[in-house]
Specification:
The chain is an alpha/beta fold and 347 residues long. It contains ten helices and 16 strands.
Length: 347
């Protein structure tokens, strides 16, 4: 028998899965340039923000499809991320990748025209990847609007008992025949809410779900959401938290087999008043026109990252607001993670 001791193994890094869509952006009118800018958009902003905000106990596991016309470029982008899991793989599919033409009308309003279209997940396709990924948490961003249908989202929630963060984003947008995205009321709001623990919408998206934040919060909390965040651009963010919820550790436990809620949220239990506040935005430190593209994605991915790392809700929101503010002074998603970390990035 050998006397050589087996060296201790490093602790397993926890894993956050990411569902969303790669999008190639063509941007008009963002900063007064006569020619449009072409660059990565979509889930790349959230991936960069996760990479910047997670600590080294976490790694990123993409559960992402990409059109085979842009698969190599997408893989090149993913390889720039420090926290990407060593076994990370993108699924190339034989469809033209999502491409969006953005036309800015002001710093917070824009129109979007979609072409291409990678299909969303079915449960039959997603479940084997989810099981193999062995994730501890899940970040979902509806960047096409059809990444998951309601049935698949419900099956995902029933199967996975870790925390799920969702940015509803394009779920409340329809695509006209010419590709223009237009708002549409979301049916089955309560059913959608029941699939997620932390829910993010902006002011316009919220209007497609309820008349005001408190009406939406009442629906969301009754459906099992623990926190609703409504981002308001330059006006900051309003959050509504369920009784007893301040950390992800306060999420209600779920049964191992049925994945049903089996207990109340937090030490305070399920009874009590909702907690709500509006936290101010952090002004961007930028000379001239900044780039607001991706600010909501950066905000949400940073907020969830900091919750995963143990921050309480308000600390996570403040960190997210700082990251969104910093994003304004960077063009595009390439090099964004380094920029958000405060590092000098030379492209």
């Amino acid at each position: 028998m050998s006397d050589v001791a087996t060296p201790p193994q490093p602790p397993r890094r926890r894993r956050v899965g990411v569902i969303g869509s790669f999008v190639w952006d063509v941007i008009h009118g963002r900063d007064g340039r006569a020619v449009p800018i072409e660059e990565w958009g979509g889930i790349t902003y959230a991936l960069a923000a996760l990479d910047a905000a997670l600590d080294d106990t976490w790694e990123i596991v993409p559960l992402l499809k990409v059109g085979d016309d842009l698969a190599d470029r997408a893989r090149t982008f993913v390889r720039t991320l420090r926290h990407i899991a060593p076994d990370a793989e993108l699924l190339a599919v034989p469809y033209p990748n999502n491409r969006v033409e953005l036309r800015y009308h002001d710093a917070e309003r824009r129109s979007e025209f979609l072409s291409g279209g990678v299909p969303g997940w079915t449960w039959l396709g997603l479940k084997p990847l989810l099981d193999a990924a062995q994730i501890d948490a899940l970040y979902v961003n509806f960047l096409s609007g059809w990444e998951l249908d309601l049935e698949t989202a419900q099956l995902l929630r029933a199967h996975f008992n870790g925390p799920i963060y969702c940015d509803l984003h394009m779920l409340v947008m329809a695509v006209q025949p010419d590709g223009l995205r237009v708002p549409r009321p979301l049916p089955d709001v309560a059913a959608w809410c029941s699939c997620f623990d932390v829910l993010q919408v902006n002011e316009d998206e919220m209007a497609m779900m309820a008349p005001d934040p408190m009406r939406l919060a009442a629906t969301a909390m009754a459906a099992g959401v623990s926190t609703l965040c409504v981002t308001l651009g330059s006006q900051g963010v309003v959050y509504v938290a369920a009784p007893g919820f301040d950390h992800l550790a306060d999420l209600p436990p779920r049964a191992t087999e049925a994945r049903l809620i089996t207990g109340s949220r937090g030490g305070a239990g399920a009874l009590g008043a909702l907690r709500t506040a509006r936290l101010p935005a952090i002004p961007a430190d930028v000379i001239g026109d900044g780039d607001p593209t991706g600010c909501g994605d950066v905000w949400g991915a940073t907020c969830f990252s900091r919750l995963l790392c143990g921050d309480n809700l308000e600390a996570a929101i403040r960190c997210a607001s700082r990251a969104a503010s910093r994003n304004v002074s960077h063009r595009g998603a390439s090099g964004l993670a380094a920029h958000l970390r405060g590092e000098l990035h030379i492209s």
